[in-house]
Amino acid sequence: MSTAPAEAAAAPAPKGGALKLILAVVIAAGAAGGGAVFYMNKKAAAKPATEQGEAAGDEHAADEHEETNADEHGEGHGDAKGAASSDFALLAPQFVVNLNDEEAMRFLQVEVQVIAKKTAALDAVRINDPLVRNRLMLLFSSQTYHALLTREGKEKLQADAAAEINKVLDEQKKPHINGVVFTNLVMQ
């Protein structure tokens, strides 16, 4: 009598084709959104700490005017102690140099952050970046693998790096930095 049951039986039911397509679109959109969030977070984390804290820079400027007993070149040389009241500046990109090793071809990759209590010292490091990077590259490439295996060797390299940067700042008659820290150090 009616042809409805015959038509229903003749048309095959969809086997999830539309559902699979919708699911694929949702997964692709989620992956793209997740990738965008990861990229933005990575980019924000790469900014130096001093750029993120520029709003607090006015407070640091007021503190600098109140420091009447500090010497012209800052307080201390080459040590990260007391870094809580200091500013940091990343020397980007990382340094990658050949080590001075006769036994094998060895490399050093190091990420350096400069510590200073005076923002003028960090500004001077940024302005003289090519000179600073050249001095540090020469220092790092003169190191040996075995000398840097110990903690003492790495701490000596930090002190030597701070001294090299301060030599550049002396030549420019700028305030000294207080030290450097290695936030990444890999030897191969």
Structure characterization notes:
The chain is an alpha+beta fold and about 190 residues long. The chain folds into two domains: about 15-45; about 50-185, Band 7 domain (Tetrahydropterin Synthase, Chain A, 2-Layer Sandwich), CATH 3.30.479. About 50% of the residues lie in helices and about 15% in strands. The chain has seven helices and three strands. It has helices spanning about 5-10, 15-45, 50, 55-65, 120-125, 130-140, 150-170, and strands at about 85-100, 105-115, 180-185. It has a three-stranded antiparallel β-sheet with strand order 1-2-3. Strand 1 and strand 2 (about 105-115) form a beta hairpin. It is elongated, with a radius of gyration of 28 Å.
Euclidean distance between termini CA atoms: 85 Å
What does the radius of gyration come to?
Answer: 28 Å
Low-confidence stretches: 46-83
Extended strand count: 3
CATH topology of the largest domain: Tetrahydropterin Synthase, Chain A
Shape: elongated
The largest sheet has its strands arranged as 1-2-3
H/I helix tally? 7
Helicity range of the residues? 40-55%
Listing every helix as H and every strand as E from the N terminus to the C terminus, the arrangement reads HHHHEEHHHE
Mean pLDDT score? 75
As a percent range, the share of strand residues is 15-25%
